[in-house]
Amino acid sequence: MERRDFLKRAGLATAGTLLTSGSAMAFDEARDIRPGKIPRWYGFNLLAKFSGNQPNRKYDEEDFALMQELGFNFARLPMSYWNWSKPEVDKWMDINEKVFLDVDQAVNFGHQYNVHINMNLHRIPGYCINGRGLEPIDLFYGPEKDKALEAAIYHWRYITRRYKGIPNRRLSFDLLNEPPVTPNENYARVVRALVEAIREEDPKRLIFADGINVGRDPVPEIADLGLVQSCRGYDPMQVSHYRASWVPGYTPDSWPKPSWPFTDKNGKTWNKEVLRKEKIDPWRPLMKKGVNVHVGEWGCYKYTPHEICLSWMEDFLSLWREMGWGWSLWNLKGDFGIFNSGRKDVEYENFRGNQLDRKMLELLQKYCS
């Protein structure tokens, strides 16, 4: 089937007909989603606005059509504010609204293909897990942190006003990506300020907050805010990020070829029960308080042997299903994804012009219920 025919058959309307930016949209509030009762969403991160180096890069309608066809219902959009603004402090309050036409289109694609959109500021004024030092002021530390927080609030107010009225079943916000190892109170201060600003503009918006320690650990200090907390599925990093050059401290000789179960250089053996104890159980007290948990990012880089990757993935997937957690793989297409991953030990299948890792797809589909 030609790509154009595939999209024509899969789509229901043109993107421009579904969203009027900044205006309230009529919907049945009684049927909308409330914190503490989110569906079990599962899908992928989509990276068009991830880096900030390609502000004109658009979201691809095909990605949403593929997700619907293959049984997925969630797209997290990690975005850098550099796409629509500048890193200089005196430019922080300047927003190029034209860039958001691409984001509008992603929201429309989500509506067309029944895929929930979760907007995340992967780079927010004052902080990013990648290249943190490129921010002129730190959001969490230092005498000028309030200036960064003011800019972060400004950007979230703009986004909230632009998408006000779109129901939670279609759209949610994820405040910032992977906060650092920091006193929880520092992070809670930022979260509370951002949540307050968003709710002043749109009181019922569904909001996610990433766990502390780059998403790994729960944050009981914000349990009272009615947020979803977003965790990660990357541990142990020696399995999920084998030969990933951007990982701090990695060298080609520093990490052994992974296995699963895996024994690290300190003699610790990782297996499913260790994942349960260290990556699942710490979140149980938060859930008892009525807080929903979702796995915002996870996956395995292309150099981990494929069978090891799949075995590790299945242990995490089975644990998350036990807990009722949804998840979003990093990414749909690319080094961690089911399409075009570039793995050397996979027999790919041509699917709509993409190279499909059928085994990984079927594993994910097995846990989409």
How would you sum up this structure in a few lines?
The chain is of the alpha/beta class. The protein is built from ten helices and 13 strands.
Topology order in helix (H) and strand (E) letters:
HEHEHEEHEHEEHEEHHEHEEEH
In DSSP terms (H or I, runs of 4 or more residues), the helix count works out at 10
What helical percentage do the residues reach? 25-40%
Query: How much is the average pLDDT?
Result: 92
Strand order of the largest sheet: 1-2-3-5-6-7-10-11
What fraction strand?
A: 15-25%
- CA radius of gyration is 20 Å
The oligomeric status of these chains comes to single chain
The largest β sheet comes out as: 8 strands, parallel, barrel
Report the principal-axis shape. Answer: globular
Please state the structural category: alpha/beta
* Distance from first to last alpha carbon: 29 Å
Keywords, separated by commas or semicolons:
single chain; 369 residues; alpha/beta; two-stranded antiparallel ribbon; 10 helices; 13 strands
Topology:
Layout: H1 3-10, E1 42-45, H2 61-70, E2 74-80, H3 100-112, E3 116-124, E4 127-128, H4 145-162, E5 171-174, H5 184-201, E6 207-210, E7 228-233, H6 237-240, E8 262-263, E9 269-270, H7 272-280, H8 284-288, E10 293-298, H9 306-323, E11 326-329, E12 349-351, E13 354-356, H10 358-366
Helix pairs in contact: 1-2, 4-5, 7-9, 9-10
Structural summary, described in words:
- 30% of the residues lie in helices and 15% in strands.
- It has helices at 3-10, 61-70, 100-112, 145-162, 184-201, 237-240, 272-280, 284-288, 306-323, 358-366, and strands at 42-45, 74-80, 116-124, 127-128, 171-174, 207-210, 228-233, 262-263, 269-270, 293-298, 326-329, 349-351, 354-356.
- α2 links the parallel β1 (42-45) and β2 (74-80).
- α9 packs parallel to α10 (358-366).
- The radius of gyration is 20 Å and the shape is globular.
